[in-house]
């Protein structure tokens, strides 16, 4: 198992620079998730680590060894592709054995490793089938099995669950998590799905436009997003963001509401962020954000309420249970000051 | 521009619209009479008529000719001889030696064709494969080279034959180069071995672009992920080719192999223009034998030529069935 250190990584394809100076340390045995919107460079970064592409500048170290110039095959890493990339003309057994035969491993050892992977992933019964005879979930297991048998120093997983249906995705997510716990291997997992990121990761690197915006544990990202992008990207539904004017302990919202918020800077334009789960119905006489209900999504245990302020600003709140609300109804919302996030004019978090 | 295009389109469409209106009423009447099945017959009829006139009827006539004797061209003037022509073609004391056969030219041509097929098809598959592999890489001027390799396919076989005769003849381009390099000029097309090799090489040159295209399409259909997975698996290039590229190219290779085989058996025009079958009978192939027996020789024998062509068609049918079987097997995988 190996730690991975990226230093000053950039990558350009012709005139287009897609990775802008990434520095990152991944600890041995850690499950690191790269998350971000499409085109943010997360898969490119993974391919650079894999050795399928070369960085334009910067170095990649595995276990303290500089591998930047090494070909993919000499890095001792295994990759699970989004498309699974199983060899369609080979049986499951042959798919699993292929990489081991390449290094001329002893036949008995190959058979033992393939059997072990089969047992671990519960695909023993599929060994003589071709990939076309497997379901999506089974193919996914074989793809992971192909990585496992090589006993790599780290696993690289490129959106491995994106081709599965929602239910199977949930099951496989739990299995990958269990696998990580059992193998204790370093894993880098690329996804655009923040639920996958939050549930799987030891730490998450949130990426945007070729840069890492924040690296932190899932809860740290949720509780203390470093900037507006991370605040908006992590958490569902998205965080409510309001432009506001701070004046020493009091926040003036565009609608005229004045909310006491300790720790606000004096005389500054800020953005206040409140998670939908942290907005609650205001008490009588309390200063509040006023809005009208536009849509109600009753999920049973909770109700997602979409509303709009008089200024046209959308507000989303998640209320517990099944509150008796109707469309068009006036809503007064408030929040606990401790759960509000403040961002300065540049979108960076203001520590309070 | 757009307005012009619209007007042009309308002008082109006008006569067709007129035609459609003219046949609309009779077709409706026909449909009322015969139902939908009758309509299918209407639309199939033109194609069937062409197929019948140019393929089915000649095929039947050819078979009828093979049962007749004499030198007359018109079928009613020719006496019926049954299977005599076939018997004459197949009359051999020792099938391994053409001279012991009654129709020795036929057996010489058959043997030449068999040897030609073995060498030409092997060369064709190998050269097309290598070319496709190279053209599939990210090389400079890839589009240009793809066009260059395909270009000979567009040439008339006669033009191909003439070009290469001009290069290979006694005072041709090749000898000019050979002499300039300080060697003695060779009579390429008057040497049995060189002439045969030239026929193999020239026909390969002329058609390889077509097969390269089929293989290139197959190569491009192999997902890049598989090669990257193989790269992660530490697979050496030779093994990638043997274990991944070749098996996944199987269906395309099967098509190329059998199409090349069928075309190779039918070799005629470019080789005939290039060598005329010579020197002696060293590049005499089956189709040339049929052509000369039926039309070009002094004592033309259309019946014998027809019988020979039926025998050759039999071989081609076997090869075509093999093609179908091969591609079906490839599809099942």
Automatic annotation (TrEMBL), chain A:
Pfam family membership, one: ABC_tran
Gene Ontology BP terms: carbohydrate transport
GO terms of molecular function: ABC-type transporter activity; ATP binding; ATP hydrolysis activity
SUPFAM superfamilies with a match to the protein in the record: MOP-like, P-loop containing nucleoside triphosphate hydrolases
Keyword annotations of the record: ATP-binding, Nucleotide-binding, Transport
Spans traversing the lipid bilayer: none
Domain ABC transporter: 4-234
Gene Ontology cellular-component terms listed: ATP-binding cassette (ABC) transporter complex, substrate-binding subunit-containing
Family: Belongs to the ABC transporter superfamily.
Protein name: Carbohydrate ABC transporter ATP-binding protein (CUT1 family)
Organism taxonomic ancestry: Bacteria, Pseudomonadati, Pseudomonadota, Alphaproteobacteria, Rhodobacterales
TrEMBL record, chain B:
Transmembrane intervals: 38-61, 114-135, 147-167, 193-220, 240-262, 303-326
Domain called ABC transmembrane type-1: residue spans: 110-323
A single GO cellular-component term on record: plasma membrane
Domain of life: Bacteria
Keyword Heme: no
Example GO biological process: transmembrane transport
Protein location: Cell membrane
Topology in membrane: Multi-pass membrane protein
Coarse class of the protein's main subcellular location: membrane
Keyword vocabulary terms for this entry: Cell membrane, Membrane, Transmembrane, Transmembrane helix, Transport
InterPro entries (UniProt xref): ABC_transporter_permease, MetI-like, MetI-like_sf
One matching Pfam family: BPD_transp_1
Protein family according to the UniProt entry: Belongs to the binding-protein-dependent transport system permease family.
UniProt protein name: Carbohydrate ABC transporter membrane protein 1 (CUT1 family)
Organism: Pseudoroseicyclus aestuarii
Lineage: Bacteria, Pseudomonadati, Pseudomonadota, Alphaproteobacteria, Rhodobacterales
């Amino acid at each position: 198992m190996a730690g991975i250190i990226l230093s000053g990584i950039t990558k350009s394809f012709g005139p287009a620079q897609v990775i802008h100076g990434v520095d990152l340390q991944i600890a041995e045995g850690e499950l690191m998730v790269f998350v971000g919107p499409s085109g943010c460079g997360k898969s490119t970064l993974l391919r650079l680590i894999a050795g399928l592409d070369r960085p334009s500048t910067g170095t990649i170290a595995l276990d303290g060894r500089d591998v930047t110039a090494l070909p993919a095959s000499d890095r001792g890493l295994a990759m699970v592709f989004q498309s699974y990339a199983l060899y369609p003309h080979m049986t499951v057994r042959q798919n699993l054995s292929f990489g081991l035969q390449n290094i001329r491993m002893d036949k008995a050892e190959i058979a033992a490793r393939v059997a072990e992977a089969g047992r671990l992933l519960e695909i023993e019964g599929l060994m003589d089938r071709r990939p076309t005879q497997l379901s999506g979930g089974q193919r996914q297991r074989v793809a992971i099995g192909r990585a496992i048998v090589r006993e790599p120093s780290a696993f690289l997983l490129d959106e491995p669950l994106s081709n599965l249906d929602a239910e199977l995705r949930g099951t496989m997510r739990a299995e990958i998590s269990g696998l990580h716990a059992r193998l204790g291997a370093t894993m880098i997992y690329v996804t655009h799905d923040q639920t996958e990121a939050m549930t799987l990761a030891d730490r998450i690197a949130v990426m945007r436009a070729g840069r890492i915006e924040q690296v932190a544990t899932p809860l740290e990202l949720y509780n203390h997003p470093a900037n507006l992008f991370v605040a908006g990207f992590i958490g569902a539904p998205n965080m409510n963001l309001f432009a506001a004017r701070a004046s020493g302990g009091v926040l003036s919202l565009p609608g005229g509401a004045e909310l006491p918020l300790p720790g606000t800077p004096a005389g500054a334009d800020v953005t206040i962020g409140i998670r939908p789960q942290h907005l609650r119905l205001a008490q009588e006489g309390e200063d509040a954000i006023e809005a009208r209900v536009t849509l109600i999504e009753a999920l049973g245990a909770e109700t997602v309420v979409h509303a709009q302020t008089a200024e046209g600003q959308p507000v989303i709140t998640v209320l517990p249970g099944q509150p008796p609300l109707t469309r068009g109804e006036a809503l007064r919302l408030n929040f606990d000051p401790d759960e509000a996030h403040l961002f300065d004019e540049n979108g960076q978090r203001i520590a309070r | 521009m757009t307005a012009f295009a619209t007007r042009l389109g309308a002008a082109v469409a006008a006569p067709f619209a007129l035609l459609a209106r003219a046949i609309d009423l009779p077709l409706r009447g026909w449909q009322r009479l015969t139902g939908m099945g009758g309509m299918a017959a209407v639309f199939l009829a033109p194609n069937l008529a062409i197929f019948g006139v140019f393929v089915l009827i000649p095929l039947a006539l050819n078979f009828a000719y093979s049962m007749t004797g004499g030198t007359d061209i018109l079928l009613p003037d020719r006496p019926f001889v049954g299977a005599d022509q076939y018997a004459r073609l197949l009359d051999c004391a020792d099938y391994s030696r053409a001279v012991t056969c009654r129709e020795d030219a036929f057996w010489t041509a058959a043997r030449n064709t068999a040897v030609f097929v073995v060498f030409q098809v092997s060369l064709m598959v190998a050269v097309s494969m290598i070319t496709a592999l190279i053209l599939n890489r990210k090389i400079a001027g890839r589009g240009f080279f793809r066009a260059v390799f395909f270009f000979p396919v567009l040439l008339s076989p006669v033009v191909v034959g003439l070009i290469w005769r001009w290069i290979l003849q006694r005072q041709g381009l090749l000898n000019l180069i050979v002499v300039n390099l300080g060697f003695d000029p060779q009579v390429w097309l008057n040497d049995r071995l060189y002439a045969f090799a030239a026929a193999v090489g020239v026909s390969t040159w002329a058609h390889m672009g077509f097969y390269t295209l089929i293989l290139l399409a197959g190569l491009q259909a192999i997902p890049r992920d598989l090669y990257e997975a193989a790269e992660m698996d530490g697979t050496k290039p030779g093994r990638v080719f043997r274990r991944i590229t070749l098996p996944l190219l199987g269906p395309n290779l099967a098509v190329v192999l059998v199409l090349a085989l069928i075309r190779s058996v039918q070799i005629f025009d470019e080789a005939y223009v290039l060598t005329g079958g010579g020197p002696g009978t060293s590049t005499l192939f089956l189709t040339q034998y049929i052509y000369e027996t039926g039309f070009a020789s002094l004592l033309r024998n259309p019946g014998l030529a027809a019988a020979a062509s039926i025998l050759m068609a039999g071989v081609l049918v076997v090869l075509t069935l093999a093609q179908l079987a091969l591609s079906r097997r490839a599809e099942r995988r």
